[in-house]
Write a structure and sequence with these properties.
CATH class of the largest domain in chain B: Alpha Beta
Number of strands of chain B: 15
Distance between the termini of chain C: 52 Å
Strand content of chain C: under 5%
CATH architecture of chain C: Orthogonal Bundle
Strand content of chain B: 15-25%
Largest sheet of chain C: none
Number of domains of chain B: 2
Number of helices of chain C: 15
Helix content of chain C: over 70%
Oligomer: heterotrimer
Order of helices and strands of chain C: HHHHHHHHHHHHHHH
Shape of chain B: globular
Strand order of the largest sheet of chain B: 7-6-8-9-10-14-15
Largest sheet of chain B: 7 strands, mixed
Helix content of chain B: 40-55%
Chains: A mainly alpha (about 300), B alpha/beta (about 400), C mainly alpha (about 350)
CATH superfamily of the largest domain in chain B: Response regulator
Distance between the termini of chain B: 77 Å
Structural class of chain C: mainly alpha
Number of helices of chain B: 13
Chain lengths: ~300, ~400, ~350
């Protein structure tokens, strides 16, 4: 029983990472119908931005606020930097091909991802780096079931962001404009929506989310390297599809489910099949309910 | 009927034309570099080819090895080279991919006309390239490929490291005899031939010695979350965990295992050896033991000298096992060239086969009839950021 | 009789090519011969991969980014046949090396192609109902599943790699594979099936309304494409003599997609050119190994932005030259490329 509960917790912890990254994926896809393969790489850039910021800050702040001040600054710097990178990617790579065929866009996305990974390998070096423990780890042992403050932080952030984003998209004027652009960009433009601005904003928010994810995850699993976004990015995309791509709560649900599925397969089945299982579940879900768990059944555009 | 045949014929002729056009185009493209390739191997230079992963997902290991190799070459050239000639190293990146390793080696052999090859640390890449080296009659010295199959490819393939069966035996014996362990669980990297091989040989030897394997789970290189596997392994109450992976993941595994309340010993192989291991894993690694080619803290003067020189060349970075092996492989090869008295590949091969008691950083190297290095391994204990020497296990 | 003539001519031409390559490159006066020979073989294998993927991605307009999965299935099944079944096959053939080797290679390649085709059918049957992006992810997932399965099969070496595969493929066989894939894909494209596929690419619903059995045709295209990836896999296995799951990651699938994108989606000549370019160019750039992947990624993005129709698409300099020579296919291609740009545009 203890083992089962521990595995459940492990699954939630892994799943909250996927959920956090999937949020950005799902936003960009929801608005642009674009699989932003570079999203995982922005997540990596976020972690590295945090790493270098903390090295710059090192020793200048002391232990003010138990590291929370430092963590806050690092988070802000990294989120702003990645928002910039995200907007830059959109402006330079995706905007010129926005009206091209889907395959063209997909190939550009792959190209951007390859570019970021290889430039990062040249600039940061290929070897893994240790992400500083800005927020000291606290371990809780509850009748043999173990969890840490960092794991809770990741999960809580994912849930808070999910609620915040949902409110933002449902309640604000900008959110409304986003939905309009997602629905029909040409009609939105005719209604006076600045489509380019909205798309830039979507990328900025999505990338900032990825950066936050990168930092929170690196706190939890403190080894960062230029290729860390590759598999996480793809799994997060799987999570987003699983939950219903374009749906914010779906991304979190998909992420948590995927994390738990992987954990239970590895924990109770065969761990060698862990990577395959994620995709197998995806295929089954797509065949049974292509819109995903929380996605609305969309009428195909003709 | 007739027209149909004609159409078919036309189509096929068009296909043929396509093929010939492709061939012509290719020939033209390939002829391009021919023009720029006038520089022949200088007669007062000896060319050695190195192939390794300088980019890609295993680049950190390839780059480490490369630093060891370049240091050795610089030293040899600074002291006048060999046979009155300087050594020129031609390095090709294989991106850590087996098929690229094959292309890289073919290029080194037929285009650069190297006299000998150094590479690779990943056995899968060595295995992909070795048949080419063998069939071209170019000796190849692998620095870190521990899969027994590598040197079985043919009599031109050598290695300066010990092989998986030996390393598995070392750790199994150490766990059973020195640590007095009876139940060990294994967590292996299923993507890496090295890790899978080591895990298998450890199991074989540990069970033969009377121990029991409590559980056997796996992960894939690049993973960051190992909680699921660790939870189910720890539930089986093993006395120790054997983690034959690379330091890139081992540090994180140690952290997560300790977090889950595991207090037993952690065991591993030479993939652990890096300064980065402690940086990532921290004190979770205490009570950890791994087999290695050498101990960086060994007080022997030649090892101290190597460590200092390496640090001076690489901004204070300490050499890991791969760097030391790259360094040794290069020196063993150059020593063979010296003894052969010629840079003819077949002569180098014969001299390599005679290598006996070469004083390497990673131990005295003797190449046996299987062209594998026979040398002892050391077991190191991880303690507060230091790798303490525990014992030496002779083959 | 007349059918046989061009086939025999092709065979003779390839035999001549093989003989010339052996004389000039392998045993001959050209210093870098073996290196060039190997690049030729790799280019040929990549051409088969690109041409076959082009049938799904370019002609039928479905995006698959899991071609490496079928490539892997073909490679591993074919290698298993020649490693484990080689002696048995050799036993029933006359003991002449050429006949024996060819027999084993033909048997292995057929098995590889068949297995890849079956895999294609298994993946295609359910998933080709899905919309473009989802199909892409399913194929990507399939490729990864295949890789994980291979890692777990001990008989083919798992993570240690598959060793001991005989070297049976040469320029003749690779050339034959290229010729066969070109001929088959060309014939399909020009047949009524091909026109139906193009119709599907332009507008699936309209195609269905016209009475085209959309799913069946898409699956057929997918299966043929997978089978040729299997052929390429077999040739690769019998040339490299060693297989490792790391060769067949999604990065390899991306590479094949990039080849056809570079050459021009839906264009046969483009796929060939793309594959050859992406095999040869990295070799020329060896001196810049560190920057190679950066340049490569940057070039890809720029080409997609400024020439989304690829090198051989309509309106380009290369396209015009090729159109003069390859009158028929290219004249059509202009129209095709345009329609390709219209489908599925996000803002359409």
């Amino acid at each position: 029983m203890t083992v089962f509960l521990q595995q459940l917790l492990n699954g939630l912890s892994l799943g909250s990472i996927y959920a956090l990254v999937a949020l950005g994926y799902t936003m960009v896809y929801g608005v642009l119908r674009l699989i932003n393969f570079a999203h995982g790489d922005v997540y990596m850039l976020g972690a590295f931005a945090g790493y270098y910021t903390s090295r710059l800050l090192h020793g200048h702040l002391g232990a003010a606020g138990g590291g929370l001040v430092e963590a806050g600054i690092i988070l802000m710097v990294s989120m702003v930097a990645c928002a910039g990178v995200g907007m830059l990617i959109e402006r330079l790579a995706y905007r010129p091909v926005r009206r091209a065929s889907r395959l063209t866009i997909l190939i550009v996305a792959i190209g951007v991802s390859l570019l970021i990974e290889n430039v990062a390998q040249m600039v940061f070096g290929a070897e893994p780096k240790f992400f500083p423990q800005i927020i000291p780890e606290k371990r809780f042992d509850w009748a043999g079931v173990v969890f840490t403050n960092q794991q809770i932080l990741v999960l809580a952030t994912a849930v808070v962001l999910m609620i915040g984003l949902t409110l933002f998209i449902r309640r604000t004027r900008t959110g409304k404009a986003m939905r309009a652009v997602a629905h029909n960009p040409d009609a939105a433009r005719l209604m006076g929506v600045n489509v380019n601005f909205i798309i830039s904003l979507t990328f900025a928010i999505g990338s900032a989310l990825a950066a936050a994810g990168g930092i929170l995850v690196s706190l939890n699993q403190p080894g960062i390297d230029p290729l860390m976004g590759l598999m996480t990015g793809i799994k997060a995309f799987v999570a987003a599809v699983l939950g219903g791509i374009g749906s914010i709560p779906g991304a979190v649900l998909g992420g948590l489910l995927l994390g738990m599925a992987e954990t239970f397969v590895a924990g109770y089945g065969s761990s060698t099949y862990r990577d395959a299982i994620a995709f197998l579940i995806l295929i089954v879900i797509l065949l049974l309910k292509p819109a995903g768990l929380l996605g609305k059944g969309q009428v195909e555009k003709v | 009927m007739k027209t149909k045949g004609n159409v078919r014929m036309k189509k096929s002729i068009a296909t043929l034309a396509t093929i010939s056009k492709i061939a012509l185009g290719l020939a033209a493209l390939l002829a391009l570099p021919l023009a720029g390739c006038g520089k022949k191997a200088d007669s007062n230079e000896i060319l050695i080819g190195e192939y390794g992963a300088l980019t890609g997902s295993i680049a950190s290991f390839g780059q480490s090895t490369h630093k060891g190799i370049t240091l050795a070459i610089e030293e040899i050239n600074a002291s006048g080279g060999v046979l009155g000639k300087k050594i020129r190293l031609v390095t090709e990146d294989d991106q850590g991919k087996p098929e690229e390793a094959l292309t890289a080696v073919t290029k080194l052999i037929s285009k650069d006309r190297v006299s000998a090859l150094l590479g690779e640390f990943a056995s899968s890449n060595s295995l992909a390239a070795a048949p080419m080296a063998q069939s071209s009659g170019i000796p190849m010295v692998s620095h870190g490929s521990t899969n027994p199959k590598v040197t079985q490819v043919g009599d031109y393939i050598f290695r300066v490291c010990f092989i998986d069966p030996f390393q598995g035996q070392v750790m199994a014996k150490f766990a059973h005899n020195s640590l007095k362990l009876g139940h060990v669980a294994i967590l292996r990297d299923v993507k890496s031939d090295y890790s899978v091989g080591l895990a298998d040989y450890f199991t074989q030897n540990f069970v033969a010695a009377g121990g029991a394997i409590a559980g056997d789970e796996s992960y894939s290189a690049g993973d960051k979350d190992f909680n699921a596997q660790l939870t189910s392994l720890i539930a089986k109450k093993p006395e120790a965990l054997f983690i034959p992976g690379y330091y890139t993941e081992v540090g994180l595994i140690a952290r997560q295992a300790r977090r889950l309340g595991f207090t037993g010993a952690l065991l591993g192989g030479d993939g652990w050896d890096s300064e980065k291991l402690w940086e990532i894993g921290g004190d979770a690694l205490n009570n950890g033991y791994f087999s290695n080619h050498y101990s960086v803290d060994n007080p022997a003067p030649e090892i101290r000298a190597f460590v200092e020189k390496f640090k001076a060349h690489n901004q204070g970075e300490a050499p890991d096992a791969l760097a030391a092996l790259g360094y040794d492989a290069t020196r063993v090869l150059v020593d063979a060239i010296r003894r052969a008295g010629s840079d003819k590949p077949s002569a180098i091969r014969d001299a390599l086969a005679q290598t006996k008691d070469f004083p390497g950083i990673t131990g005295n190297i003797t190449l046996n009839a299987q062209r594998d290095a026979v040398k002892s391994a050391v077991v190191l204990e991880v303690k507060d950021g230091k790798f303490l020497y525990k014992e030496t296990v002779a083959p | 009789m007349k059918r046989l003539v061009p086939i025999l001519a092709t065979l003779a031409g390839l035999a001549l090519l093989q003989w010339a390559a052996t004389a000039l490159l392998l045993d001959g006066p050209i210093r870098q011969g073996p290196y060039y020979y190997q690049i030729l073989l790799l280019a040929g294998i990549n051409v088969i991969l690109a041409v076959s993927l082009n049938l799904t991605n370019g002609v039928a307009g479905q995006f698959s980014i899991g071609h490496a999965g079928f490539f892997a299935v073909g490679a591993y099944v074919a290698a298993s046949v020649s490693v484990y079944g080689g002696p048995a096959i050799a036993g029933i053939l006359p003991n002449i090396p050429l006949v024996r080797d060819s027999g084993i290679l033909i048997a292995a390649t057929s098995a590889g192609a068949l297995a890849a085709a079956i895999a294609g059918w298994l993946v295609g049957m359910p998933s080709l109902r899905l919309r473009g992006d989802y199909l892409a992810i399913v194929t990507l997932g399939f490729g990864e599943i295949i890789r994980v399965l291979i890692l777990n099969i001990d008989a083919v070496g798992g993570a240690r790699g598959f060793t001991g595969i005989p070297r049976l493929a040469n320029l003749f066989w690779v050339g034959l594979g290229v010729a066969a894939s070109l001929a088959v894909v060309r014939n399909i494209t020009r047949s009524s099936h091909g026109r139906a596929l193009l119709a599907i690419r332009s507008d699936e619903i309209a195609a269905q309304a016209m009475g085209i059995n959309v799913t069946r045709l898409k699956v057929t295209a997918f299966v043929v494409s997978a089978a040729f990836a299997g052929v390429a896999g077999s040739l690769f296995a019998h040339f490299a003599m060693f297989l490792h799951p790391n060769t067949f990651t999604f990065v390899k699938s991306f590479e094949i997609v990039i080849m056809i994108a570079l050459g021009g989606l839906g264009s046969l000549a483009g796929a060939v050119l793309g594959a050859v370019t992406l095999t040869v160019l990295p070799e020329l750039f060896r001196g810049f190994a560190d920057y190679r992947m950066v340049i490569y990624a940057l070039a890809l993005i720029l080409i997609m932005i400024y020439r989304p129709q690829g090198m051989l698409g309509a309106g380009g300099f290369l396209g015009r030259i090729v159109r003069m020579r390859w009158k028929k296919p290219v004249a059509k291609k202009g129209a095709e490329t345009k329609s390709a740009d219209n489908i599925g545009g996000p803002s359409a």
